[in-house]
Design brief:
330 residues, mainly alpha, Serine Threonine Protein Phosphatase 5, Tetratricopeptide repeat, globular
């Protein structure tokens, strides 16, 4: 018996997820587009099935660094589910709505549009709490996403409270894939303490995240590599510059997976530059900062806070080199 249209569409969706797990983003995108087109023809352009796949497409595009396109996909999903969720007989509609709002909010954060991001992420949390319950896995995800934003906006106490609430949900068994979420939340709590200037508190959190991820995924998985690089940043902050090989490994892995032009590459270039500056190689540091800045400006825009951070690092380095040169000539 030949598969029905819905079976074909669901098969394409499953294949998209497998390709994504294998790091084959381009193939995953093509497969996801086929699934969306088939679901649109079967159940309509504004169906929850289409909205669910639009979230998947947003994830695929985000991994490729195509943030503007990813936002368009996530925003379309939100628009569909605002109308459709209340008409569905089970809470699945509100689950998709919470996921859509969370994806849209996370993308707005990555694009530096923090007030809009906060509105979406708060709505995602409220939707999950109200429709799914305060101990549901999607409530954990929504807490984590809002906490990440609050780290970026300097609301550190609010971020910590949300992370600890998310941890409580995972530890009570409310979150499918709890091991993944434990590693993610510990990673993020390490980043929060780094931002607070409390690297000594953050180091064991980051170490725990890295150990959990290594055990689950192995040393070469991009999530493991990202955890290791985050730990390296905390070691740098403690004056323990053991991280150059870690950052170079991260660059090699991310360039192999994502190509030469991606946010994760810019992030690790910036961090490697800081190590080179601190260990007495200002020429190499300047080269790396300039490459990171050019990439961030192209990917995120000239006014993005992440671009401004690298621009500031570069400006301070150039000023220090100029001052040292003038003193040597005096």
């Amino acid at each position: 018996m030949s598969p029905t249209g819905f079976e074909q569409a669901l098969g394409l969706q499953d294949r998209t997820e497998r390709l994504l797990a294998e790091g084959r983003q381009h193939d995953a995108e093509l497969c996801c587009r086929q699934a969306i087109s088939l679901f649109e023809s079967l159940s309509g352009a504004d169906s929850p099935d289409v909205a669910n796949l639009l979230n998947e497409m947003a994830e695929v595009l985000e991994l490729q660094g195509r943030l503007g396109e990813a936002l368009v996909s996530a925003s379309r999903s939100v628009s569909i589910m605002r109308d459709a969720a209340g008409r569905m007989e089970d809470p699945c509609g509100y689950l998709i709505l919470a996921q859509s709002l969370g994806m849209e909010g996370a993308l707005l954060r990555r694009l530096g549009r923090y007030p809009e991001a906060e509105a979406r992420l708060k709505e995602a949390l409220m939707t999950a709490e109200t429709a799914l319950g305060e101990w549901d896995g999607e409530t954990c995800v929504a807490c984590n996403n809002l906490a990440v934003l609050y780290k970026y906006t300097g609301n550190f106490d609010e971020a910590e409270a949300l992370y600890r609430r998310a941890l409580d949900i995972v530890e009570r068994g409310g979150t499918p894939g709890g091991g993944f979420w434990l590693a993610t939340i510990w990673h993020n709590m390490g980043g929060l303490e780094h931002a607070r200037g409390r690297a000594e508190i953050g180091e064991p959190y980051a170490m725990k995240a890295w150990e959990l991820r290594r055990a689950a995924l192995g040393d070469e998985h991009p999530d493991t590599v990202a955890d290791e690089a985050a730990l390296a940043g905390l070691l740098d902050a403690l004056g323990r510059y053991e991280s150059e090989l870690i950052y170079r490994k991260a660059l090699a892995v991310f360039e192999r997976l994502y190509g030469p032009d991606h946010y994760e590459i810019a992030l690790n270039l910036n961090n490697l530059a800081a190590v080179k500056q601190a260990t007495g190689n200002p020429e190499e540091a300047e080269r790396l900062y300039r490459r990171a800045l050019e990439m961030k400006e192209r990917l995120l825009g000239l006014e993005h806070p992440e671009a401004a951070l690298t621009a500031n690092n570069l400006a301070l380095l150039v000023a220090a080199r100029k001052s040292a040169s003038e003193e040597s000539r005096a």
